[in-house]
Write a structure and sequence with these properties.
The chain is of the alpha+beta class. It has 2 domains: 60 residues, no CATH class; 132 residues, Alpha-Beta Complex (tt1808, chain A). Helices cover 24% and strands 34% of the residues. Strands 3, 5, 6, 7, 8, 9, 10, 11 and 12 form a 9-stranded mixed sheet that branches. It has a 3-stranded antiparallel sheet with strand order 2-1-4. The chain has a two-stranded antiparallel sheet with strand order 13-14. Strand 1 and strand 2 form a beta hairpin. It is globular and about 40 Å long.
Length: 206
């Protein structure tokens, strides 16, 4: 089973095959778990690589695809960017979609949306953790696969994580005070205070 994707290397502008998904990785794909490509890559090469399609995560040397691109996921992503952008002037937010987040030297996650307070957050890759990370489940995603990612965000100092499931029409909020997560109808943070209803995040595109 092949992905049919290619990788474009920034420093050479060369396209190479993304590589097959076989063995255990193929099983994970079928079960809706992490879509490991089985491809290994040096961290510096990853940081200088543009992937064909959705950006990939880098987990201890292995390239892992993310589920993205379907309408429910994209609709919630668009709604939240719009709603958060409306709060930027008042709260001084920096709202950035699909951004690589450094967990440690050989581990990078990709947040659907990350939000920082005002200030310098770095140049190419953020050097400070976001105060809010947002993850939107796709149909193939499983909450059990998202939990390690949530815990990694918390481990680097991210204060709030929203995980939204468009299919189940629900959201779980994780925070340093509630690391196990709480189901909520309101997406919220403190300092600064943000409140967005889950219904507004899930509203159909006009």
């Amino acid at each position: 089973m092949k992905t049919g994707r290619t990788i474009r290397l920034k420093h050479t502008d060369e396209e190479i095959p993304f590589g097959p998904v076989t063995g255990r990785a193929a099983y994970n794909c079928l079960m809706g778990a992490a879509m490991s490509t089985g491809a290994l890559m040096d961290v510096e090469e990853y940081l200088h690589t543009v992937f064909d399609g959705a950006d990939c995560e880098y987990l201890d040397g292995e390239i892992v695809e993310r589920n993205a691109g379907e309408l429910p996921h994209a609709s919630v992503l668009g709604n939240l960017i719009y709603l958060l952008a409306g709060l930027k002037p008042k709260l001084g937010l920096q709202v950035i979609p699909v951004i690589r987040i450094r967990i440690r030297e050989r581990r990078y996650r990709v947040a659907d949306i990350a939000v920082w307070r005002a200030g310098d957050i770095g140049k190419r890759i953020p050097t400070v953790p976001p105060f809010l990370a947002i993850e939107i489940l796709s149909a193939e995603d499983r909450m059990v696969r998202m939990l390690p990612k949530v815990q990694e965000y918390l481990s680097i100092g991210t204060e709030w994580i929203w995980v939204i499931d468009p299919e189940e029409r629900m959201a779980i909020i994780y925070s340093r005070n509630k690391p196990a997560g709480v189901v909520s109808d309101i997406l919220r943070t403190e300092d600064p205070a943000i409140e967005i209803s889950v219904a507004d995040a899930l509203a159909p595109q006009a």
